[in-house]
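#struct-help
A.M.: can someone run this one for me? Single chain, 308 residues.
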Amino acid sequence: MKFHIRAFNLFLSVVVFSLLAVLTQAEDVKKLILIAGKPSHPPMMHEFRAGSLLLEKCLQDVKGLKVEVHDNGWVKDESTFSDADAIVIYADGSGKHPALQGDHLATLEKLIKRGVGFGGMHYGVEVPADKGNEEFIAWMGGHYEHEFSCNPIWAPRFDSLPKHPVTRGVLPFSISDEWYFNMRFLDGIAGNQPYQNRDLKFTPILVAQPSDDVRDGPYVYPKGPYDHIVASKDRAETMLWLVERSDGGRGFGFTGGHFHLNWGNESFRKVVLNTLNWVAKNDIPENGIESEVSEYELRQNLDLKDKK
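D.P.: on it. Structure tokens below:
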């Protein structure tokens, strides 16, 4: 009889331990929500949906991370935000920005206050000077401002990368994209050096110096040149930055991502994959997030657009 009792107790202990292990593992999984914008621009540009799905595919085997992609500019059911660890928007910005539609800004503000991470990619870093700018500076350290920032197509050389989890396994690279720069950063900083105030710790990651020709334009729109951009020649500019907020959340801005085929570049892709993992507070492997993307995969899930 005693043998059966001991055996039962051992069995019960194993069951309880297993359940606790499963529950602990479930609690450790971070949830990243990628919001892809509506179709925009000619084919192979601003492929927000295809790019987000490609990033999701590259992240699918990352331990401790769950990724949801929602297209067409917002989530279908906002209840999915309830257990989100980070929200990243890859979409058209300015007045079309998904965060500025309806009551979305208020919805995001409630999530930010409980420490949810927030990021914007490419046009998703732009909001108007009179709407959303204070929130974006508080949530992710800065934003693109029309006619203060500029948007030339150029190939910066990221020859020196800081030591940080998001740069793990990332090799120096250069790639042509519509790299925005001269962001409207917190406290009016240039944004090319680490900075901290009582609310944010700011870390520049992708930093390069535009040539005089790049500063002189033409920019994509308006074509420029802008006097204040030209006056800052010889200054390095930041195209990917990170923030750690006093509420415990994290944020980032990434100004590349205009040309869809750039996701085929390993270093370009890896620094973004690492950053998406980081903003959700998930551990990054020592060599960064490894992934492979084929030419076939790059051409999947493209928006239906008129060829121009």
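A.M.: thanks! Residues 30-298 form a domain with the Rossmann fold fold (CATH 3.40.50.880).
D.P.: also worth noting: The mean pLDDT is 93.
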